[in-house]
Amino acid sequence: MDTKEIQRLLDYIAKSPLAEVSIETEGLKVSVKKNSVAAPSVTVAAAPAPVAAAAPVAAAPAAPVAAPAAAPVADNLYTVKSPMIGTFYRAAGPDKENYVEVGSEIVPGKTLCMVEAMKLFNEIDSEVSGKIVKILVDNASPVEFDQPLFLVEKA
Predict the structure, then answer these.
(1) Per-residue pLDDT tens for 110-132?
(2) Is it the case that residue 135 has pLDDT exceeding 70?
(3) What is the CATH number of the domain that holds 125?
(4) Is 56:98 a contact under the CB 8 Å cutoff?
(5) Are 8 and 47 part of one and the same domain?
(6) Which residues pair with 60 in a beta bridge?
(7) Are 103 and 134 in contact (CB under 8 A)?
(8) Is the pLDDT of residue 43 over 60?
């Protein structure tokens, strides 16, 4: 991997919602981690020579980094978090009504939103009864694993 390829990778990471990427090929290991305040940090190290010839590993994101901690919430508030990385949708389609709005009463099993991952639309259902207090993500926005989506005032 030459410096131009590394620069293109950095530019791609800077524009993407990924927080961390590690790439390992024969003889080279590159790790890129975004910092919320500073520019991305890059670590490039020569990998030890493999014993047997191995195919290069494709770019794959490392374990996702949890979203920054939000302000402390009241004891009666429950945070609904994303169970996966994907794209958050508030409705089943562009011409459909949103599943919930601020003030909506919910019960366990009620669909709150969808998260699309790899062309599969996954309905996210409520696990508690209560009322939606705040929607923390904009429609059609990328979300990370364990990212807060809704605040619910428990009944």
Answers:
(1) 999 999 999 999 999 999 999 99
(2) yes
(3) 2.40.50.100
(4) no
(5) yes
(6) 22
(7) no
(8) no
By CB atoms closer than 10 A (0-12, 13-18, 19+), residue 134 is middle
Question: 137-155 in b/e burial notation, b at 16+ Cβ within 10 A?
Answer: beeeeebbbebbbbbbeee
For residues 149 and 93, membership in a common domain is answered with yes
More confident residue, 115 or 27: 115
Is residue 87 a contact partner of residue 155, using CB atoms and an 8 Å limit? no
Query: Are 102 and 135 in a shared domain?
Result: yes
- 70 assigned to some structural domain: no
Point out which residues pair with 13 in neighbouring strands. Answer: none
* Domain contains 68: no
Q: Which domain holds residue 84?
A: 77-154
Backbone phi, then psi, for 13, in 5-degree steps? -65, -40
Cα–Cα distances in angstroms (integers) from residue 109 to residues 30, 125, 127, 132, 134, in the given order: 43, 5, 6, 14, 19
Task: Report the predicted TM-score, pTM, of the whole model to 2 decimal places.
Answer: 0.53
